[in-house]
């Protein structure tokens, strides 16, 4: 079966949103951010879902949204940071999607997120340590599930162009 969708995965700050939007413009495919999709569907924020119902509840909503988006055609999906850490999501996405890891060194991630005010995990004095621990834990999992890995330590346009050349020729 031909893969109908592209899933962008990678650590926070790797460029999934920016690259996904550009890739959508280049390719004519529809771009969707998984977290925004969930927020729009349930008329609330991810932060509020976690606060009111906990992570397990959010992960169930995320899995449902993953299944819905995997059924679509010609979509570029920016996954949430934790989406591909769960085998049930990986299985669903692998059926109809090509998973592309946006690979960025930790030093670049730290530079890109140095002034971040949105991500709750980073609103603490030890944010560099938090980033390092998460990065080291998640990167091997992303690498394991990715069909392709692209160097994302360059401009968003260059990354989108690389993915387009790789998958959309």
Question: What does the model show?
Answer:
With 169 residues, the chain is α/β, with parallel strands linked by helices. Helices cover 55% and strands 14% of the residues. It has a single domain, classed as Rossmann fold, CATH 3.40.50.300. Helix 1 (16-27) crosses helix 8, helix 3 (46-53) crosses helix 4 (55-70) and helix 4 runs parallel beside helix 5 (87-96). The protein has 8 helices and 5 strands.
Please give the structural blueprint:
Elements: E1 5-9, H1 16-27, E2 30-33, H2 34-42, H3 46-53, H4 55-70, E3 75-78, H5 87-96, E4 97-103, H6 106-112, H7 127-145, E5 148-151, H8 156-167
Parallel strand pairs: 1-3, 1-4, 2-3, 4-5
Helix pairs in contact: 1-8, 2-4, 3-4, 4-5
Q: Fraction of residues in helices?
A: 55-70%
User: Could you say which structural class the secondary elements and strand pairing correspond to?
Assistant: alpha/beta
Domain module tally: 1
Evaluate the radius of gyration: 15 Å
The CATH topology corresponds to Rossmann fold
> Which percent range describes the beta-strand content?
5-15%
Which strand order do you get reading across the main beta sheet?
2-3-1-4-5
* Shape type: globular
Major sheet details: 5 strands, parallel
Order of helical and strand elements: EHEHHHEHEHHEH
| Strand count | 5
What separation lies between the terminal Cα atoms?
17 Å
Name the CATH superfamily assignment: P-loop containing nucleotide triphosphate hydrolases
Contiguous helical run count: 8
Instruction: Extract low-pLDDT stretches.
Output: none
Mean pLDDT: 93
What is the CATH architecture assignment? 3-Layer(aba) Sandwich
The first-level CATH class name:
Alpha Beta
């Amino acid at each position: 079966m031909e893969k109908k969708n592209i899933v962008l995965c990678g650590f926070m700050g790797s460029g999934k949103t920016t690259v996904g939007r550009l890739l959508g413009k280049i390719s004519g495919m529809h771009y969707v951010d998984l977290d925004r999709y969930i927020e729009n569907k349930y008329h609330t924020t991810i932060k509020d879902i976690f606060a009111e119902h906990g992570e397990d509840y959010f992960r169930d909503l995320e899995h449902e949204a993953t299944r819905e988006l995997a059924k679509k055609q010609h979509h570029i999906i920016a996954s949430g940071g934790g989406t591909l850490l769960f085998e049930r999501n990986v299985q669903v996405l692998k059926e109809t999607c090509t998973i592309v890891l946006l690979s960025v060194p930790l030093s670049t991630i730290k530079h890109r997120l140095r002034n971040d005010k949105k991500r709750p995990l980073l609103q603490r004095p030890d944010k560099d340590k938090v980033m390092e621990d998460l990065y080291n834990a998640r990167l091997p999992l992303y690498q394991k599930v990715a069909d392709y890995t692209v160097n994302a330590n360059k401009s968003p346009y260059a990354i989108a162009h690389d993915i387009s050349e790789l998958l959309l020729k």
